[in-house]
Amino acid sequence: MELEQARQRAQELRRVIEYNNRLYYDQDAPQLEDFQYDDLMRELRQIEAEYPQLVTPDSPTQHVGGTPSGRFAKVTHTVKMESLLDAFSYDELRDFDRRVRDAGIQPQYVVEIKIDGLSCSLEYENGQLVRASTRGDGEVGEDVTPNVRAIRSIPKTLKEGAPAYLEVRGEVYMPHRAFQKLCEEQELQGAAPFKNPRNAAAGSLRQKDPKVTGSRGLGIFIFNVQQVRGMELTSHAASLDYLKQLGLPVSPRYHLVDNIENAIAEIEQIGTERAALGFDMDGAVIKVDSLAQRTQLGSTAKFPRWAIAFKYPPEVKETKLLDIEVAVGRTGVLTPTASFEPVTLAGTTVSRATLHNEDFIRQLGLCIGDTIQVRKAGEIIPEVIGVTAHAPEAQPWQMPAVCPSCGAPVAHLADEAALRCVNPECPAQALRNLIHFASRDAMDIDGLGVAVCTQLVDRGLVRSAADLYTLTREQLLTLDKFKDKSADNLLAAIAHSKENNLDKLLFGLGIRNIGDKAAALLAGHFGTMEAVAAATAEQICEIDGFGAVMAQSVVEFFAREGTADLVRRLAAQGVNMRWQGQVRTDKLAGKTIVVTGTLPTLSRKEAEAMIVQNGGKASSSVSKKTAYVLAGEAAGSKLDKARQLGVPVLSEAEFLSMIGS
Question: Phi/psi of residue 318, each to 5°?
């Protein structure tokens, strides 16, 4: 490759890598598999090694990928939280050993599992947890102390023998069992499930509500001492032993070896046993054991020279496609699933994998009887990645024209790849619709969670939301774990939900593309359920913040067979069908306002509802068109950007005074 070609390729690689860094580190929503990202980084390093003049200070090879999000207070790390150099072959590990020995060092190595999660720093003073922070960009992270305190497995007080000050680094992870439970709950609630346990862990740790973090079953493995005062540590293995004595959950497997060949043998052994682990790992790490030798070796701009991570190649197996089954989700989406001859992947036997949607099947040209390639994404979720050989004379498989649950025609909407069943009374959608209807942002029926909804539907007591309002005490007492008090409490919560405002009901109906904010706009604009149901798309588009797609979704929902009957039954049971909010004003007409930080008395949703109610538009991002930023404590990057752009900043008191509240 000539210099100019190398320059252009390096620029393109940096652009793609940085884009995916933001998705992975900052948004917890990666698009590339780990091995695909690793291939891009490896190619960029090779170009920069061949042409050192092309290395730039902002190259992703020179810095850690993440950045503090602005949702939390920033923490400047006293000791930099570095990344690790990756190796993909044993020869690369031997090259690492040669570099260490060329520095005049005769090392012992510690080999340990590389946990796949979110890197986190824990600080203890006199044995008490005082602060927890994410890695961020390695130098500045986010303060997540309240969230970490909500994780049961992380000790808040160390055992006897703790030093005056201790900072340790670990990896917050989500066990497979907790991940599977979370994905099942997300699917039942109609939410997009996390792609893998790493992203689930990262998204859970960075929740604004610590209670959510605490409910996700997170764990942590400590793998390094960042700094310590009040005692002296001389080796890595000894430091892990010491941390274990203090009650910290250290890296689950670490072995001290005398040479690189023994280290490679240990990595091979870990590879054979990784399938039995109850959590994700994305490799193994070799570290120089002596802390004095580590200091002698030092670090590059991004990596320590005393450690290297080995990445295992993804495991792919071939098998025969036996059938394609179709399931129906809460929103009516038809999801195809491949059924194939069982294969062993990552230590478990799998025989099914999602096929996503019709477009995915068409791209592969899948036929029953094909020889397909299967792997486990993130070591846990089976997926079909290709076709090795098509079955002789077989025809490509087609999605059904009718819903496999209720027999109603399915619709292929123009703006999405998915096919949908549009029958609101479809039995397959009943459970997911009920869970959504009872959720906090909808009708907020306390005690009507996933487990109770599942029992109600499975036992035929409830087929639609309207059936909730005809439930009896005797029926509830037939449910598992229900006694007199729990039955009475649920009936009271159901009765109380009848008084909810119209926007809660509209959101609870599960109209496609209509979230809680849009439901409030609809309710406030039209005033009654009858008026919303009778509105045309043109009339709905008159609402500031509504587009043609959203308006059409509302019209299509109320035009469906069964919707009118559902609304009629709800009204007959006394469910409120009128907007009970304040009369809409134009005090903020034409003004876009961004709410950020923690306000003294208002939640963010309450503040945004007030903005909309007074004719304004609530936005999530600051720009030159922003009229005001309503800022509370820990406002972060949005407040900084507002000041840079000269956007006026309001306190809660100033905002309330502005709208006359």
Answer: -100, 145
Asked whether residue 642 is assigned to any structural domain, the reply reads: yes
Strands 371-377, 628-631: parallel, antiparallel or unpaired by DSSP? unpaired
If we measure between CA atoms, which residue out of 370, 369, 367, 372 comes closest to residue 353?
Answer: 372
With beta carbons less than 8 A apart as the criterion, state whether 66 and 21 touch.
Answer: yes
Do the domain assignments include residue 386?
Answer: yes
Same-domain pairing of 485 and 552: yes
Residues 488, 494, 500: CA angle, nearest 5 degrees: 145
Look-up: residue for tokens 């909309």? 612
Contact 618, 612 (CB under 8 A): yes
CA angle 182, 184, 185 (to 5 degrees): 65
At 284, the amino acid letter reads A
Q: So what's the pLDDT on residue 96? A: 97
Task: Give the model's pLDDT for residue 525.
Answer: 86
Whether residue 135 is contained in a domain is answered as: yes
In the prediction, which pLDDT does 347 show?
Answer: 65
DSSP annotation string for 432-454: HHHHHHHSTTTT--TT--HHHHH
> Do the Cβ atoms of 447 and 489 come closer than 8 Å?
yes
Other residues' Cβ atoms within 10 Å of the Cβ of residue 620: 10
Task: Give the 3-state secondary structure of 464-475.
Answer: CHHHHHHCCHHH
Rounded distance, CA 309 to CA 400, Å? 47
b/e per residue 121-139 (b: at least 16 CB within 10 A): bbbbeebebeebbbbbbbb
Helical (H) or strand (E) element with 94: helix 90-102
**DSSP reduced 3-state for 352:** strand
Q: How far apart are CA 129 and CA 157, in angstroms?
A: 6
- Give the domain extent around 39: 3-54
User: What integer pLDDT is reported at residue 64 of this predicted model?
Assistant: 57
Position 443 scores a pLDDT of 95
Do residue 263 and residue 336 come from a single domain?
no
* Cβ(591)–Cβ(581) below 8 Å: no
Residues of the chain short of pLDDT 50, as ranges, are: 69
Q: How crowded is the C-beta side of 532, counted as CA atoms within 13 Å? A: 30
User: Which of the residues are catalytic?
Assistant: 114
State the amino acid at position 510 in one-letter form. Answer: G
For residues 293 and 70, is the Cβ–Cβ distance under 8 A? no
pTM, to two decimals: 0.58
SS3 222: strand
Contact 383, 374 (CB under 8 A): yes
The structure tokens listed for 614 are: 């007074």
| Pick from 414, 590, 575: nearest CA to 504 | 575
pLDDT value of residue 243: 96
Cα 431 from chain centre: 23
Same domain, 243 and 347: no
What is the domain-level CATH number for residue 24?
A: 1.10.287.610
| Closest of 12, 61, 196 to residue 117, by C-alpha | 196
3-class state of residue 477 by DSSP: coil
Q: How far apart are CA 10 and CA 19, in angstroms?
A: 14
**What's the token pair of residue 491?**
């009936």
Model pLDDT, residue 67: 53
Angle between helices 90-102 and 260-273 (to 10 degrees): 150
d(CA 196, CA 511): 28
335-361: b (≥16 Cβ within 10 Å) or e: bbbbebeebebbeeebeebbbbbbeeb
Domain end, chosen from 310, 336, 363, is at 310
